[in-house]
Amino acid sequence: MTRNAGGEQLVKALGLDKDVVFIVVDANDYCSALSTLKQEWETREGDEYIVNLTGGTKIMSLVVHDFFATMKSRFYYVPIGKNTFYDIASGTSSELHYRVNLKEYFTLYGIRYKNTKESELTHTEQEDTDIYNEVREHRFRLPDKLRFAQESPSSELRRYYAGTWFEQFSYFCVKRALHLREEDIGLSVKIYREGDQALNDNELDVAFMYENVLYIVECKVTMRGLAGAKDTIEEYLYKLAAIAKDFGLQVRPYIFTLHRVQSLSEATRDNLVKRCQILGVRNIIYGNDFMNMESALSKPLTM
Fold first, then answer.
1. Which of 136, 156, 208, 222 is a plausible cystine mate for 185, CB 3.0–4.6 Å?
2. What stretch of H or E contains 126?
């Protein structure tokens, strides 16, 4: 049977063997697709089918339903954004207990990735937290060691104080608040889209799966560039929105920052809210939001 990339990715993510049968149909032609299915499907007496109608185009779902309706079949549908599955015949919904991890999700989209493991970190979670608390005590004005990170005595410390500490702090903050497993969350996630390419296409500061939804996070200690804070923030919003488009319909992009967003003018904050809404960025998490991350991730888009 002919295989296609989407099918291969699904088989790989599910960990199925290579004997899976692929039938490639015209996704937008009902009659052609039904004819192909009838020609290529091998029906055996006594077989019973469990049919998932969720994926594919609407035409494909109709074809699959009509084809298997003539056999002993049970049909199910998984509504997007809900961890339930719906039994078509009985009209009942049941809870979907399985939670997809980060590797499984990216594999479904044909994406390979590498991330920094907790065992590879050179600074502790407590060190990251201590820096955040120091910044918070100073009303989110950065101490000199962060403002002048490039003057630190070693390249490792320069990277750490320039922003790595904040990425690590954000990672642990999310992981603890949402009780995530290590396989559900990644730090400094390098994305590779094509085969064994050596260079990554993009890097996500933090990415995690929660309730079968992918969250991606851009971490910025400060967002004041040469053009001013407003323009710099908008650049980050556009970049984040562009990256998010590659990861499916249910992606929740966020910006995490220590920038004093509340110090921006009301007009600027209103404009940023509108930009977030247009671009599909869920929110900008800042300031004391990190004290209650679970609540911050679900708060309304306001600044």
1. 208
2. helix 125-137
- pLDDT tens for the 303 residues of the chain, in order: 445 667 778 888 777 766 788 888 999 999 999 999 999 998 888 899 999 999 889 999 999 999 999 999 999 999 988 899 999 999 999 999 999 999 999 998 888 899 999 999 999 999 999 999 999 999 999 999 999 999 999 999 999 999 999 999 999 999 999 999 999 999 999 998 766 665 567 899 999 999 999 999 999 998 664 345 556 788 889 989 998 988 888 899 999 999 888 888 899 899 999 999 999 999 999 999 999 999 999 999 987
Domains of the chain: 5-95 (no CATH), 102-298 (3.40.1350.10)
Q: One-letter amino acid identity for 272? A: L
Closest listed residue to residue 168, CA positions, set 116, 213, 216: 116
| Nearest Cα to Cα of residue 100 among 192, 11, 211 | 211
Whether the Cβ atoms of residue 217 and residue 256 lie closer than 8 Å to each other: yes
Q: Cβ(57)–Cβ(28) under 8 Å?
A: yes
Q: How far apart are CA 36 and CA 240, in angstroms?
A: 41
Question: With left for phi above 0 and alpha for psi between -120 and 50, is residue 68 left, alpha or beta?
Answer: alpha
HSE-up (13 A, CA, CB side) for residue 48: 1
The CA–CA distances, whole Å, from 139 to 3, 44, 147, 287 equal: 57, 71, 15, 8
